[in-house]
Amino acid sequence: MNLKKLILATLALSAATLAQADNWPSRPLTLIVPFPPGGAADTVGRYYAEQLSTSLGQPVVVDNKPGAGTAIAAEAVAKAKPDGYTLSLATAGQLAILPNLQAVRYDPIKDFTPVAVLASVPNVVAVGPQTKIDSLQALIDQAKAKPGALSYSSCGNGTLCHLSGELLKNLAGVDLLHVPYKGSAPAVTGLLGGEVDVAVDTLTVLAPQIQAGKLKGLVLTSAERSPLLPSVPSADEVGLPGFVASGWFGIVLPKGAEPALVERLNNAIEVIADKPETAERFGQQGISVERSSPAGFAQVIAADKARWGEVIRTAQVHIE
């Protein structure tokens, strides 16, 4: 092929790509959510699916695909056509944590096209009344005085709740006994019943118990306080600026999605994020609305994968 034909072929391909993006979407879309109905991830996914249905002019149907720690959904998206009709709600656990814990049949960096971060929710470190601990420093002092005597619950082995507890141990130089539960509800029940001394879980889960005075919040794993718990200090305020650990939710497409299509979807998401009703609805659950470019989301995935990988290796975390 001579240079002229090559240029013409390239121009024709570019024109076809732009036409595809301009005509998208011409039929219903599917948003895969890697969790069963209910819960923060499903709430975020369904809200954005509803809003995108209106802005894109085509139904966005939520397809819940739980299982294998979110790997089943990720594998389904990785194998889908990159035509913009299969979207996925991606989470920190799915792309940044799980690949560090077990062999998965997808590459979190290479097999997806990041579109935008939608929302995030930090964790809270809380104690039950039986400990008489009233601050993070008091917790650290007691843990140093009696290494391994204090226990903390998480919503499961290898979860962000668990890794946040391990991060706290690393940053504060303390030894806490990890007690994994099968979900947030039994973990909180265990703390309320005195089975454990400390809980590390999401703001969404722990805020109602702290607001009711049943638990004492010691620190929020974010750089700023939350309006839901104005009396609970941030990580910066307690002198642990590295103790920032938020679970995020974002939208990804299969690898190979056209840049023009990705940009259009990102723009639609940004318009939704700017609506006052979005912040109001999520804020009631302690969820913060986020915004990012596709490149910015790619950086978040890579940075969190490296960061949590280091925590996992240092703490020698394993899942069965």
TrEMBL record:
This is Tripartite tricarboxylate transporter substrate binding protein. SUPFAM superfamilies: Periplasmic binding protein-like II (SSF53850). The keyword Signal applies. Keywords: Signal. Belongs to the UPF0065 (bug) family. InterPro entries: BUG, Bug_dom1. Residues 1-21 form the signal peptide.
